[in-house]
Backbone:
């Protein structure tokens, strides 16, 4: 009797796993994208940044020219960089650069100005706190005279 129950339970579990696999395999790219984005947001809310990053990366693979997952990745990288001590400049710099790259891609793919502003604020915070701000070209060149000197 126990053996029969075990076989029945194993069969049911196998069928459930098979059904789940079939559902996932049969999802359209749009469904997979939406699922990845939903999962990424759920992980972000739980402050599980690495898991969120994996989900945003999956969304980027499906729709590489969609701005939203690039913004999400930028937010992930900002959050990770923000978690390091100020002494870890190498790690902070790495995530800072990743965040800037994703920000630029989101901008290129038409992200909303308000969303870009939030991410830009995070990037600027990292620049300020870790001293990563690059000098502007104007800061490197002396000011040029506005009037030509007379001879």
Residues:
């Amino acid at each position: 009797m126990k053996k029969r129950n075990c076989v029945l339970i194993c069969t049911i579990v196998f069928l459930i796993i098979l059904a789940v696999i079939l559902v996932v395999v049969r999802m359209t790219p749009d469904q997979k994208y939406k699922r990845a984005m939903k999962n990424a947001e759920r992980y972000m809310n739980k402050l599980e940044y690495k898991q969120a990053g994996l989900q945003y990366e999956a969304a980027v693979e499906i729709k590489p020219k969609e701005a939203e997952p690039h913004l999400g990745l930028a937010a992930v990288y900002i959050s990770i960089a923000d978690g390091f001590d100020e002494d870890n400049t190498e790690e902070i710099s790495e995530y800072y650069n990743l965040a800037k790259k994703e920000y630029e891609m989101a901008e290129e793919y038409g992200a909303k100005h308000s969303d870009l502003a939030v991410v830009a604020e995070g990037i600027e915070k990292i620049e300020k706190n870790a001293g990563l701000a690059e000098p502007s070209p104007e800061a490197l060149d002396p000011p040029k005279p506005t009037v030509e000197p007379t001879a």
Notes: The first helix runs from residue 2 to 25. The chain has a mean pLDDT of 85.
